[in-house]
Design brief:
heterodimer; A: mainly beta; seven-stranded mixed sheet; 0% helix; B: mainly beta; six-stranded mixed sheet; three-stranded antiparallel sheet
């Protein structure tokens, strides 16, 4: 069974930093891209970031580029999202999702974690 | 930037057929994916690349895509189909784009 489990979500002040983690199991981790998406309270889905199989290529939404960093550790089946200079509008449930095998064209997300809430507030 | 437009809400009688549209400029030239999200749950992929159903998704779910409109069709609607539905495409300039979501009510 494919499983993705997020952790690290909490309350953080504006301007602060936070790192989310996603641990995967049930599939060959090194053959899939992994992505972060988010959903603000009562709002729709928004793409955040993605990373290719080797970790050498990353993509970011314009709203987070320069503030967020994504990385992966294939030895631990884990992807991390480092979030800096957080803003109140970053408040959302953050989902980790499995993508297809290429980051050149981001395809569908066929498995999602349960999500982790990040609240940015003073 | 590329935009996708979905109706805010849709309703279907129990056992009837629901259709949810996703409009975008020349969307027929793109691969469209659909997700179902029930309250307080993560999204679930129900259709990928226009017409394909992942393993475990009932045959009642189908998709089509042509021109400026992609459509998700749910046949023989059940109470358990009540959810928000989102369409998703990849655009060369805008990257990953989601529609605003459609709340489906089963009457």
């Amino acid at each position: 069974e494919v499983k993705l489990v997020e952790s690290g979500g909490t309350l953080v002040q504006p301007g602060g930093s936070l790192t989310l983690s996603c641990v995967a199991s049930g599939f060959t981790f090194t053959t899939y891209t992994i992505h972060w998406l988010r959903q603000a309270p009562g709002k729709g889905l928004q793409y955040v970031s993605g990373i290719n199989t080797s970790g050498g290529t990353t993509v970011f939404a314009d709203s987070v580029r320069g503030r967020f960093t994504i990385s992966r550790d294939n030895s631990k089946n884990m992807v991390s999202l480092q979030m800096d200079s957080l803003k109140t509008e970053d408040t959302a449930v953050y989902y980790c999702a499995r993508g297809t095998r290429s980051l050149v064209v981001v395809g569908h997300f066929d498995s999602w974690g349960r999500g982790n809430l990040v609240t940015v507030s003073s | 930037s590329y935009e996708l437009s979905q109706p805010l809400s849709a309703a279907v009688a129990l056992g009837q057929t629901a259709t949810i549209t996703c409009e975008g400029e020349n969307i027929g030239s793109k691969n469209v994916h659909w997700y179902q999200q029930k309250p307080d749950q993560a999204p679930v992929l129900v259709i990928y690349r226009d017409v394909n159903r992942p393993s475990g998704i009932p045959e009642r779910f189908s998709g089509s895509n042509s021109g400026n409109t992609a459509t998700l069709t749910i046949s023989r609607a059940q109470a358990g189909d009540e959810a928000d539905y989102y369409c998703h495409v990849w655009d060369t300039t805008s990257s990953v784009v989601f529609g605003g979501g459609t709340k489906l009510t089963v009457l």
